[in-house]
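step=encode ok
step=design start
structure_in=
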């Protein structure tokens, strides 16, 4: 089992200053069975969003994110985790 930090999206809220909805994110610890990871790739969506500022308070703006595909039997689930592709490959 591998311990990771997942970044996940909270319900957005309207920001009157920006005149649009703000994306809100949070972190949580997860444990993944490496036997069920079917792919890993850079999470371009979150990496691009973080260029405009940290996605989570006190998280470095340069922090990379990776998307994992987890097999759930007949389908797969994708999750986004903190860390670069190379950092995750070392853990697995």
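sequence_out=
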């Amino acid at each position: 089992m591998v311990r990771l930090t997942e970044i996940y999206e909270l319900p957005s809220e309207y920001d009157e200053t920006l005149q649009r909805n703000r994306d809100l994110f949070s972190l949580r610890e997860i444990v993944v069975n490496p036997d069920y990871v079917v792919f890993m790739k850079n999470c371009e969506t979150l990496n691009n969003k973080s260029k405009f500022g940290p996605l989570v308070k006190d998280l470095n703006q340069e922090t990379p994110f990776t998307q994992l595909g987890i097999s759930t039997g007949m389908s797969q689930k994708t999750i986004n985790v903190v860390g670069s592709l190379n950092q995750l490959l070392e853990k697995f």
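step=design ok
step=annotate ok -> The mean pLDDT is 90.
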